[in-house]
Amino acid sequence: MPKTNPWHSLKENRYHDNTRCGPGSEIPAHNRVPGTGNKPHCTDCTKLNSEGK
Ligand SMILES: [Zn+2]
């Protein structure tokens, strides 16, 4: 399942929860934080999730 526990970047104001998300997967490990950070959902992840990917 590509959809997984949420993570976000210290440098971004949105969170990801789909491992197929390009911008989300490119976050360097030192900027990656588990959880949503109370930020809005990534639109790319929303699209991927709605397509069942
Ligand atoms: Zn994303």
Describe the structure.
It is a single chain. The protein has two helices and three strands, in the order E-E-H-E-H. The radius of gyration is 10 Å and the shape is globular. 23% of the residues lie in helices and 26% in strands. It has one domain. Strands 2-1-3 form a three-stranded antiparallel beta sheet. The mean pLDDT is 95. The chain is of the alpha+beta class. Zinc ion binds next to strand 2, helix 1 and helix 2.
Task: Offer a concise description of the structure.
The protein is 23% helix and 26% strand. With 53 residues, the chain is α+β, with helices and mostly antiparallel strands.
> Oligomer, anyone?
single chain
Query: Which structural category do the helix and sheet elements fall into?
Result: alpha+beta
DSSP strand (E) fraction?
25-35%
The general outline is globular
Stretches where pLDDT is under 50 for at least 5 consecutive residues are none
Rg result: 10 Å
Number of domains: 1
